[in-house]
Amino acid sequence: GSGADLAGRHVVVSAGGTREPLDPVRFLGNRSSGKQGYALARTAAARGARVTLVSANSALPDPAGVDVVRVGSTLELREAVTKAAAEADAVVMAAAVADFRPAVYATGKIKKKDDREPEPLALVRNPDILAELSASRPRSGQVVVGFAAETDDVLPHGRAKLAAKGCDLLVVNEVGESKTFGSEENEAVVLGADGSETPVPYGPKETLAETVWDLIAERLPAAPRE
Ligand code: PMT
């Protein structure tokens, strides 16, 4: 980190994994713990930023000195991130967001019907929050950063995703059932829309977070506007 280089800046970080409800007791979810996003929030606060952390279903305690907004589903996360992003210098989407949600929410618990096979589960697309943020840029000079969780062909998929989403930086990391999700360490390559590639070797999630803020700080307009 570099002292208080984010002083006067407002940054938004999303963390954790969305849950898409099927009925009052069940959901479709993912394995994100929130650790990478919380590391980003803590390190930004330590560098002087005002931090809004939009946290989806993480069991982690609120970091000191950070405004935490707790959400459940992708639509809730979108609402909270979009609201906070209106006043932000940078937005970092570290949350694992569901691409699809159940087409129907059953207001009562779905019952098992004897002798009958279950209905196939119908899904609909969720909005792509990162693509929306990248396209809208409510504040001029705002830096938008995504993560890409990939299980194979990590770099080619990451490059394609950077182009598709339209963000300034994309942090490409490999995931598996017990890889990256929930662990204290990560390893990544940060791709820039300008063609830059910054490898971050295997180490604590804080180390990757510091590198992400270094790359964001380089891209922010010179003078804080507050
Ligand atoms: O929480 P941990 O246990 O520490 O694990 C960290 C992590 C693996 C969750 C994190 O490092 C990570 O990779 N987060 C992004 C996970 C993800 O959703 O990746 P994706 O490749 O499916 O999505 C790409 C980007 O688009 C992400 O920034 C995601 O937030 C965003 N997205 C995805 C779908 C959608 N509908 N809207 C989005 O904004």
How is this structure best described in words?
- This protein is α/β, with parallel strands linked by helices.
- 26% of the residues lie in helices and 29% in strands.
- The chain contains five helices and twelve strands.
- The protein has helices spanning 35-46, 74-85, 129-136, 154-165, 205-219, and strands spanning 10-16, 20-23, 26-28, 50-56, 67-71, 90-93, 100-102, 123-125, 143-150, 169-174, 185-192, 197-204.
- It has an eight-stranded mixed beta sheet, with helices on both faces.
- Helix 1 (35-46) crosses helix 5.
- The two termini are 22 Å apart.
- The mean pLDDT is 95.
- Bound molecules: ligand PMT.
- The site of ligand PMT has 25 residues, from helix 1, helix 3 and strand 9.
Bound molecules: ligand PMT
How confident overall, as mean pLDDT? 95
Structural class computed from helices and strand pairing: alpha/beta
| Radius of gyration using CA atoms only | 18 Å
Q: How many E-type strands?
A: 12
Region (Phosphopantothenate--cysteine ligase): 11-226
EC number: 4.1.1.36, 6.3.2.5
Cofactor: FMN; Mg(2+)
Binding site for CTP: 99, 109, 127-130, 147, 161, 165
Helix and strand arrangement:
Blueprint: E1 10-16, E2 20-23, E3 26-28, H1 35-46, E4 50-56, E5 67-71, H2 74-85, E6 90-93, E7 100-102, E8 123-125, H3 129-136, E9 143-150, H4 154-165, E10 169-174, E11 185-192, E12 197-204, H5 205-219
Parallel strand pairs: 1-4, 1-6, 4-5, 6-9, 9-10
Antiparallel strand pairs: 2-3, 7-8, 10-11, 11-12
Core attributes:
phosphopantothenoylcysteine decarboxylase activity, alpha/beta, binds ligand PMT, two-stranded antiparallel ribbon, 226 residues
